[in-house]
Design brief:
CATH architecture of one domain: 3-Layer(aba) Sandwich
CATH topology of one domain: Rossmann fold
Number of helices: 31
Strand order of the largest sheet: 6-5-7-8-11
Radius of gyration: 32 Å
Structural class: alpha/beta
CATH class of one domain: Alpha Beta
Helix content: 55-70%
Largest sheet: 5 strands, parallel
Strand content: 5-15%
Distance between the termini: 116 Å
């Protein structure tokens, strides 16, 4: 028969266990309340003190948790109590005392995986990463058949920038896990996306949806992965299902809006962004994305207000830099060039560093030493901002690093008046490779307008040419017209920029036109093929054309820089460089580019779906081409 004191202890243990069941069920507040009542009966009971520590930890009161756990340890220094004490101290930022407490737990119970897991957490916080990994691998050795232990190791490896190793560990975990396990699959999706294995990420996220068919979060995550994989139609369908399964979150609505944008459905995207902003009015990421959409809708002042709000709300952050860069594009679109070039510089903090990190950035002042000028991303940008190099050469000798595909064209253009003297004197050197010696500062081509104190684009003179120059075949009547109807499909929002050939039927039906493809890859039926080669080869083809018709790609910049006649099919609210503030009326009254006077612009007139929005400019180009043919 149990003695009276023993019966009281058993009753206390039972009531502690009952309170902890509330904690395990997620009700830390009730557990803490019941345990606090019990403490009046047994203020120094170590099990009760430890239970109070666990409940306080669950409430996020890490100070109380550390205090109760410390008292428990003084009465009974068992490993489990040291684990709770160490974790509470770690949450409070007391890394070294936490590590010491967790080390005591491991020494007291070396075969207890929970002790080593917690100790690994303390070691990682202390920056002892090799030791932390050793502990985690020991945990896996102690529990070789538990998938969850491998999941913890994989997450550690991912945090240490070793995603491939983490994926191998997750593969082992998957083989041990239950068929309906979701946690391991979710980790796999994140790492597969990180390593660029998007098709595999899509497959695994689809498996999660199969396990949780009615879970809105699973559908929302799958939709986000599909969008990142460049599959916006599927993404929109899955995200729409996520919205229908439950009250949508701001994240789901944002991803749905981005998918709509990628498909060119700007009005639906506006509705989704508006609802996301209503749910989270202070979310700067939503404001950023919505501002981008409003810019596409031509509502630039409203977009600028959102960008201003982000800059004020989170100064010094990457989101603020993105907002400032986006504000720069709205300013440039409206022709506010000096403000625009200033804010356009924010892109430098969003992009990879320029080559030669050992060189200082050029400040635009006169130098005797040579400066290194580099491009950033697209070929169109490189061609456009080449026109500022002569202005830079007035202040310093230049070594211009040119992409391989443009190198021959730039070299062959040296006899043009804008370059001739600079090449002849050696003040301008052109190369494909970044030089190791002979330069004293560096700058981006796209930074030149700001560094040189420029406003509107300087007066135009052709600055690229093909030395060989093609002569059009006049044995056959009719115009030779080059066509580039699509950009790179890898660009997330290419659907709005590119035009399917089927939608160009009114243009292609114009008689007495010999069509020449300016599209890399497969040549459309009935077109002359674009010869394989670099941009000099393409410029040679252009020299033999009567007209170039293109969407917003490098072909528009190449044709414009060489002075060839270009008709640009421009999307609604398109890129800043073709917007109203970058135009002038041509001799015929039609809008021309300030950057390239030979480029005439044909705009979409409404933010409809692309299949509808392209009808107006395609029809206008077809009509103008008929007039040209008849003339």
């Amino acid at each position: 028969m149990a003695r009276p004191g023993e019966k009281a202890r058993q009753a206390l243990r039972a009531r502690i266990s009952e309170a902890l069941r509330h904690l395990d069920g997620g009700d830390a507040r009730r557990a803490f309340s019941e345990l606090t009542v019990l403490r009046a009966e047994a203020p120094d009971d170590p099990l009760l003190l430890h239970a109070l520590a666990r409940a306080a930890y669950g409430l996020g009161r890490f100070d109380l948790a550390a205090g109760f756990a410390g008292q428990a340890v003084r009465h009974d220094p068992r490993p489990a109590f040291h684990i709770t004490l160490g974790l509470a101290l770690l949450a409070l930022g007391h890394v070294e005392p936490a590590r010491a407490a967790l080390h005591v737990a491991v020494l007291g119970a070396p075969d207890l995986p929970e002790a080593r897991l917690a100790y690994a957490e303390g070691l990682e916080a202390a920056g002892q990463f090799a030791e932390a990994e050793t502990e985690l691998r020991e945990v896996v050795r102690l529990r070789p058949l538990e998938a969850g232990m491998r999941l913890v190791l994989a997450r550690f490896l991912a945090r240490r920038g070793r995603p491939d190793e983490a994926l191998r560990v997750l593969g082992d975990a998957r083989r041990l896990a239950a068929e309906d396990d979701v946690a391991i699959r979710q980790e796999q999706v994140s790492l597969l996306a990180l390593t660029g294995a998007m098709d595999e990420a899509v497959r695994v996220s689809a498996e999660i949806c199969a396990v949780l068919p009615d879970d809105p979060a699973a559908a929302a995550n799958h939709g986000a992965v599909l969008f990142s994989a460049g599959r916006p139609e599927e993404a929109r369908a899955v995200l729409g299902r996520a919205v229908s399964l439950a009250a949508p979150t701001a994240e789901t609505l944002t991803n749905l809006a981005l998918a709509d944008m990628a498909l060119g459905d700007l009005l639906s995207a506006d509705q989704a962004f508006s609802e996301a902003a209503r749910l989270r009015p202070d979310d700067t990421r939503i404001a950023l994305n919505r501002g981008t959409l409003l810019n596409e809708l031509g509502q630039r002042r409203s977009a600028e207000m959102l960008f201003d709000r982000v800059i004020a709300a989170v100064p010094g952050t990457m989101d603020a830099a993105r907002a400032r860069f986006n504000r720069g594009t709205t300013e440039l679109a409206e022709g506010r060039f000096r403000e625009g070039w200033r804010d356009f510089e924010a892109r430098r903090s969003l992009l990879a560093s320029l080559p030669r990190a050992d060189l200082p950035d050029w400040n635009g002042r006169e130098l005797a030493g040579r400066i290194l000028l580099c491009g950033e991303q697209g070929l169109g940008d490189f061609i456009q901002f080449l026109r500022y190099v002569p202005l830079a050469l007035e202040r310093a000798p230049v070594c211009l690093v040119v992409p391989e595909v443009l190198l021959r064209l730039v070299t062959e253009s040296q006899s043009l008046p804008v370059w001739k003297e600079y090449f002849r004197s050696g003040r301008l050197v052109v190369t494909q490779n970044v030089p190791v010696e002979g330069v004293v500062a560096k700058a981006s081509l796209l930074s030149l307008p700001w560094l040189l104190g420029q406003g509107a684009p300087p007066p135009f003179a052709p600055y690229l040419q093909s030395r060989s120059g093609a002569v059009a075949d006049r044995l056959h009547p009719g115009l030779r017209v080059g066509l580039c109807h699509a950009g790179s499909a890898a660009y997330r929002f290419d659907r709005r920029r590119s035009v399917p050939l089927a939608d160009l039927a009114p243009l292609l039906a114009v008689p007495s036109v010999r069509w020449v493809s300016l599209q890399p890859g497969e040549t459309p039926e009935g077109f002359e093929a674009l010869p394989a080669g670099d941009m000099a080869t393409t410029a040679t083809v252009m020299a033999g054309l009567d007209l170039i018709v293109t969407v917003d790609t490098a072909m528009a910049h190449l044709g414009g820089a060489t002075g060839r006649p270009v008709w640009l099919l421009n999307r609604y609210g398109g890129d800043w460089r073709w917007a109203e503030g970058n135009r002038a009326d041509g001799p015929d009254g039609a809008p021309r580019s300030l950057w390239y006077p030979s480029v005439r612009i044909f705009d979409q007139v409404s933010p409809d779906l692309p299949v509808v929005a392209w009808r107006e400019p395609v029809g206008a180009v077809a009509g103008a081409l008929r007039t040209l043919v008849s003339g």
